[in-house]
Design a protein that fits this description.
Length: 144
């Protein structure tokens, strides 16, 4: 037995998207984005210029973890590779900054979902990468 075989690999949680920053213990996270210093427009992720005013003067920001459900759909036929339960609900949530993010809505029966509900981002393990690391995904959970 080699040293590599005897020593288990440390599981390093990996965010599913570059704009999701995980805490050290991967129990919480934040959405990363940019804010245009010229016109004040917000973006999820890392654009190189503002789509509203074309300025390249963009500041990095952390976006809200909570928002309001704008719309949703129930998925009965999942995409190839889907490992979760079916049917499942996808919700588009508006954040305070004016951007929206689509993710699975959890911990809420589809009969109880209502547009306008307050939602919060939570993290879950979505699968494993080829090295056995947990892939962390964000989901929407109702605020109680």
């Amino acid at each position: 037995m080699t040293i590599n075989e005897a020593t288990p690999k440390a599981n390093k949680p990996i965010p599913v998207m570059r704009f999701l920053k995980l805490s050290e213990d991967a129990k919480t996270g934040v959405f990363l984005g940019k804010k245009c210093r010229t016109c004040g427009e917000f973006y999820v992720g890392f654009p190189i210029f503002c789509l509203k005013c074309s300025s390249t003067d963009l500041a990095p920001v952390e976006l809200s973890k909570e928002g309001t459900l704008r719309t949703y759909t129930v998925i009965y036929t999942p995409p190839a590779g889907w490992q979760g339960a079916v049917p499942y609900t996808l919700g588009d949530v508006d954040l305070a900054e004016g951007v929206s993010l689509l993710a699975e809505v959890i911990d809420l029966p589809k009969e109880d979902i209502k547009i306008g509900m307050k939602m919060r981002m939570v993290l879950r393990i979505g699968g494993k990468d080829t090295e056995g690391n947990d892939i962390m995904v964000y989901k929407w959970q109702p605020v109680k």
